[in-house]
Amino acid sequence: MSGIGIIGWGKYLPEGRLTNAELATRFNVDDDWIVQRTGIRERRIVGPGETTASLAVEAGRRALEHAGLRPDEISHLILASGTPEQLSPATSAFVQRELGTAGGAHDVNAECASFAYGFVVAAGLMAIDPRPILLIGTDTHSLVVNPEDRDLGVLIGDGAGAVVLAPHDRSWLQKWDMGCDGTKTESLKILAGGSRLPASEETLRQNLHYAQIKGNEIYLNAVRFTVGSVKRTLKAANLGPDDIDHLLPHQANMRIIDSILEHSRVPRDRLITNIEYYGNTGAASMPIALAEALDAGRIQKGDRIMFAAFGAGMVWVTALIEWGAGEPTEWRS
C-alpha cells in the first residue's frame, strides 16, 4: 500500500479585517477583555461575493502551484468545511468546477475538525489509489454568527488552507485517533436549515439560522476529548510529550489551547499558533497555520507534528505526522 505525504500547500485569507477596537465598541467591552479571553486581536472577514467555495478555490490554486501540479493531475478533491456553500450540491462540486480537478470530489464535515478528519480519510484513499489528492479546509463562520452574539462574535474569522497530498514509499501519517460523542450535540449548533427544522419565516424571526454556543461546555469537552486523544496517539506511537516537535491544534481560542498544552504536557515552545491575527477560522485554521509554519522554515525533515482538532458534535481527532518520513513515488502512468 502507498503511504501519504505533503508536496504542496497554500492559504487564502480575505482582505477584510475585523479588529478588537470595532468589536469593543459593538459589545461595550474593551480590547483587553477580548484578548484575555480569546488571545485574538483581529480577524479576516469575507466581503461581498466571497464564499466558502471562493476562498477554497484560491487556497487550492496556490497549493497546486506550490506542488507544481496541474488541476487535471489531481485524482480526488476533499473539501473540509462546516459552512457549506449551500445545502445541495456539495461545496466540493463548486470548487471542482472552478479548479478543473480530475477524478472524484466530496465534502467532509466534522465542523472545526474537518481538515484533520480529511487528512486521515485521504490517507485511506491514497492506500488504494496512489495518486495526488487535494485537501482544502475552508470556512466562513462570520456568515453564520449573529452580529449581536458577543461570545461567538469575538472568536470567528474566515479563511482557507490547502495541501496537495501524494503517494510516498513510507507514510508520513504515523498514528491517529478520532472519535465522536453525540450526546454533546447541543453544545454548539445551528438549528435551522436542515430536515429537522427547515428554514421558514419563523426560524428567521427567531434567528435559528445562526450558530448557538454553550461556551463553558465547549471549553471543558474540547480540552477533555483533545487531551485524551493526544495521549492515546502518543501511547500508540510509544512516544511521550517531549518527543513532539510541533503541536498544531485547531485555533479555537487561546484559553482552550493553553489548557490542552497544560494537560497534555507538550512543551509550550512546540506550539504552532496564529490565532492572534486570524481568530477561529474553523476547518481552515490548521492548514493556514501549517502553511505559515512551513513558509517560515519552522518545520524540518524528521520533525514530528501532532495535529489536534475538535469540533461541534462533539468530534475530535489527532494525527501524528513525521515530516519527510518517506520519499515521493512515481504515480504518472
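the 2nd protein, sequnce then structure:
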Amino acid sequence: MSAFGEGAPCWADVALPDLAVGRTFYGELLGWTFEDQGEEFGHYTMALRDGVKVAALMPKVDPSMPTAWGVFLAVADVARTAEKVRAAGGQVAFGPDAVGDSGVMAGVVDPGGSFVGLWQPAGHQGFDLVNKPGAYAWSENHTRDAEAVDAFYQDVFGYESQQVGDGVHFDYKVWSVPGAEDPSLGRLKLDGTAEDTPSAYQVYFAVGDCDDAAATVRRLGGQVLVGPAESPYGRTAIVTDDQGARFAVIDLARRSDSIPGQ
C-alpha cells in the first residue's frame, strides 16, 4: 500500500545531458546530496536532503528526450490505471515496467499533451520529505485544453477541483485527491501570450528564501524566467537550471492575498 493517496504526487525526477553538472547545480541550490543507484539502473541518482530522499536525477539516454522535470502519481495498480487512461482519452507512452524491487512504473500523456508518470510502489514509496526547504512542494499541469484535461483527471483519479481566479483572465484550479485534507495539484490554462510554452507539468521545490534562490540560479548559470513574485501559496520564481530543465522555487512562508484575475 502506498503512503500517498491514489493519484497524489509521490515522486519527481529530471533527465539531464550531464549528470555531474546537474549534481553540482542542485547540490548548491537545494542542498542535496546524491546516491548513484549504479549501472544496473542506468545511474539513476537519488537526491537527498538531510539524509532522506526528495527527488532524483538521471542521465539522458536519448538526445531526443526532453531535458525536463517530471512528476509521478501514486497508484495501487499501474496496469488498471493505464486502462483507465486509455478509456479517458489519454495515451500510454510506455510501461507498465517493473523497476527492480522498487515498484512498477508507466508513463502516460493526458489529452492536453502533458506527460506524467504512474508509480505503483513496493520498496520505494516516494518522497520522504515534502514542503521543507530543499524538498518537493507542488506540481501544476500547464495546458491549453483545460476542459479536456479537467475531465480526464476526474475520470481517471476522481480529483475534486476548486476554481481560483475568475476562470477567464486567469483560469487556475486546484485538484484534490478524494478525502485529502489539502490540495494535491494545480492546473493552469495557458493563455495566448504563452504560445511557445509546451503543455507540461511544472514542479515546485521549497526554499528558505525565494529571492536568494533566484540569485543562486543566475550565479550557477541558470535562468530566472518569471518572478520572484507573490502568490497566495508563497513567493515563487520560475527558473531553468544550467542545462535548460524548467522548474519553480517557492518560499511557502511568504504568502499573499493577491490572486490574478480578481
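The domain at 9-121 is CATH 3.10.180.10 (2,3-Dihydroxybiphenyl 1,2-Dioxygenase; domain 1). The chain is about 15% helix and 40% strand.
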